[in-house]
């Protein structure tokens, strides 16, 4: 299904009254979902500019702190929509820069920040009026972004310039630009507000005949400096980052692809040239002491007879008992029992887990479909 731009439609329509919890969750996690015009209510009508509808192409989604509004970034129409979660109606729309990709909300919920990848800017939006307050300059190709716990500093991942812009929100000026490796895309603030985690889509540059190495960049919010570069070997395309509650150890979950680039390509017809899984990272708190590093484990989400492609979004329930990872290429959400996952990580040799296709059966308790699959 797809969202139609209200600027190109005179029909006021409505979302179903009972939004599926699975649908809402999977979209919020970043799965490749689209609404359709018959499903979206527009608070006001706009003149039709052509007979061909414009598809909004939702790219990111966030809930307001009070849960009353759902904010949707639409890169196809260069806009941000606000949906009333009680009535399922679009109640506001803001025009932003070119190709908006992601959204962050200030801690008090009063301000939205939308990254504009093709404009090299961030649009600052008043959540009450939905008016653009300021346009902030960034590096090349801004994508993911997050504020610190105080809402005073904005961290923006610049996917093209391989950097993270640190912006003072009082002045709107960039304080510094930190190096990232390579193509930083997704940004998450830690639960305690002390760290910013940035996942990089591309691996480090290296020899063609060697395994890839990807990086999770850690930034301290106290002085806006990089405190650690967590290396995750053998994987590419690190995606969204989810953090478990402190009672569950505060570990991070990051979906990835694991390419078999050193295997003979004759194995293509047999499958499994790429496998899909997630990194489980236990970060060192505070400054990283000499020779002490965060620990990294890898587990596959694929099964022996099925693959779950394009791991994308990740989340952990508030009580930490379940983790969820979307597979945008397979249209489903993997539901993970974190106690079973922890048991597997403690009992199984860590160096063998990245290649075990039977591992997911030990901790994945459900696969929730998010749409009908065409076979």
Please characterize this protein's 3D structure.
This protein is mainly beta and 375 residues long. It is built from two helices and 25 strands. Strands 1-5-4-3-2 form a five-stranded mixed beta sheet, with no helix packed on it. It has a four-stranded antiparallel beta sheet with strand order 6-7-8-9, with no helix packed on it. A four-stranded antiparallel beta sheet has the order 10-11-12-13, with no helix packed on it. Strand 18 and strand 19 form a beta hairpin. The longest helix has 10 residues, at 338-347. The protein starts with 20 loop residues before the first helix and ends in a 6-residue tail after the last strand. Residues 1-48 have low confidence and may be disordered.
- In DSSP terms (H or I, runs of 4 or more residues), the helix count works out at 2
Strand order of the largest sheet: 1-5-4-3-2
Structural class: mainly beta
Radius of gyration: 21 Å
Strand content: 35-45%
Which ranges are low-confidence, i.e. pLDDT below 50, for 5 or more consecutive residues? 1-48
Described by the principal axes of the CA atoms, the overall outline is: globular
Most strands sheet: 5 strands, mixed
In round numbers, the mean pLDDT is 84
**H/E series, N to C?**
HEEEEEEEEEEEEEEEEEEEEEEEEHE
Helix content: under 10%
Span from first to last CA?
17 Å
What's the number of extended β-strand segments? 25
Question: How are the elements arranged and paired?
Answer:
Layout: H1 21-28, E1 41-42, E2 58-63, E3 69-74, E4 79-84, E5 89-95, E6 100-105, E7 111-116, E8 121-126, E9 132-137, E10 142-147, E11 153-158, E12 163-168, E13 173-179, E14 184-189, E15 195-200, E16 213-220, E17 225-233, E18 242-243, E19 252-259, E20 274-282, E21 295-300, E22 311-316, E23 322-327, E24 332-337, H2 338-347, E25 364-369
Parallel strand pairs: 1-5
Antiparallel strand pairs: 2-3, 3-4, 4-5, 6-7, 7-8, 8-9, 10-11, 11-12, 12-13, 14-15, 15-16, 16-17, 18-19, 19-20, 20-21, 22-23, 23-24, 24-25
